[in-house]
Known about the structure:
Its EC number is 3.2.1.21. Helices cover 37% and strands 15% of the residues. The chain has 474 residues and is an alpha/beta fold.
Amino acid sequence: MTAVDSRPATATGALPETGTVLRFPTGFRWGTATAAYQIEGGAAEGGRTPSIWDTFSRTPGKVRNGDTGDIAADHLHRMPEDVRLMKELGVTDYRFSVSWPRVQPTGRGPAVERGLDFYRRLVDELLEAGIKPVATLYHWDLPQELEDAGGWPERDTAHRFAEYAGLVAGALGDRIPTWTTLNEPWCAAFLGYGNGVHAPGRTDDLAALRAAHHLNLAHGAGVRVLRDRLPETAEISLTLNLHALRPLTDTEADRDAVRRIDAVANRIFLDPVFHGRLPQDLVADTASVTDWSFVKDGDLEVTSTPIDSLGINYYSPSVVSAGTSESPSPWAGAERHVAFTPAAGPRTAMDWPVDANGLYELLTRLRDEFPTLPVLVTENGAAYDDYADPEGNVHDPERVAYLDAHLTAVHRAIADGVDVRGYFLWSLLDNFEWAYGYGKRFGIVHVDFASQRRTAKDSARWYADVIARGGLEG
C-alpha cells in the first residue's frame, strides 16, 4: 500500500460489490490534500525566506513543544515517494499549496526559479501518475517581509498577492487545470489577527476585519490575473471554511447569536465574493470597531469577479447561544453577544465534535443560495491518537467511521440536488498541525517523523477501496 512497506496494495482493479453501494457520479473527483508549510520542510533551502509561520513557530509558547515546520514531513525531498503513495491509493486529484516565500521570497519582484522548479517537478510527477494537480496559491504562509510591512491588514498585500499569482500561473498554467486563490481566509484573518492563535499572532479586531477585506480583494485581483494568464479551460476557485451554525435553543436571543456569527464567519466572504456587497448587519455589528472606510470604491466589483467553483472545508459544527466569548476572540464585533456550547456526541483528538449532518447542512445551504455553483469538498478529515503497532500496522477505526459518515453525507447532498464535483480527504500525510505542532495526526498515511518512514493506515486502504468501487457500501 505504500512505497516503503511490503504489504500489498488493494487499490488496483475493480472490487467486487457486496450489498448496496452508494455510487458517486461518473467523473467524481477523489482527492487528497496537503499544505506547503505543513509537509514540505526545507525551510531555508533554494532561496526560501521565512514566512509568518516560521517566525510564529519560533516564538516561545506559540506552538506546542516548540515544534516548527523546518523539516515537517520532508516532502521537499520525498515528493516522488509521496506521489507514488497517491497513485497506489488511486486518487484522481491532488490539492497542494504553493509556498509563497519559496517562489517569491520577499513577496515582491521576480520569482526564484529554484522554487518554481520544485513545483514543476511535482506537477510532472503527478501528471505522469495520472493525477490532476489542484494548486492553492495561499495556505497561510505569508512572506515575513510582507508582514513586517503590515501584513493582510494593509491594502498593498492584496496587490502583492496578485503579482505572485501571476508568477505562478505563468510558470505552471499550462499543466494545472484547477487553481484556488486562497485557503480559509477566515483563519488567516481572524485566527491570525483576531485572537492570535495562528501566525502572525496579533490580537486586534480592527486588524482582523481589515485583513478579511484585503484577503477578499486579493482573491478577486488574483482571479483577474489568473484569467489573463491561464488557458480558457482553467477552473478557478476559492476555498472557505464555512461554519455550520446551530442555535442552542430556539429563542430569539440564540437565533440572533447565530446571525452574528454567520455574518463574521460566513457572509463576510460569501457576500463580497458572490454578491459584490458587504453584509449590512455585519457593518452595524462592528460599528464600534470600524466604519469600514478601508473598503474603497471599486473594491467590491473586484472581490466579486466570477469564479468557476467553490471549495468548502468542513470538520465539525458549532452550537451558538447568547452570551460572551472568551477574550481575545476571533469574533470581531460579536464577542460580547455570543457563547459557544460543546456539541454532544463523540469527539476527535482535536476535541471537535463528530457530526456529519453539519456537512450536509452546509452543502444544501450552498445549493439554495447559489444553485448553479459547482462545489468541491476541499478538506474533510479527523485527527486521532493513532500509532504504529509492533507489527508496523496503524489501525484507525474511528477515522474510517468519520470518513464513511461524511462521505455518506456528501452522497446524500448530491442525491438532493447539490452539484458536488469532488471530495478531497484531509490529509494525505501526518504533518505539522499548526499551533498543535506534531501532536495531532490527520493523515491517512502515518509518518514517523524521526525516520520519515511512511506507513498506510487502515483508513488509507479503506479510501482506496472506496475510490476503486466508486462509492460506499450502503
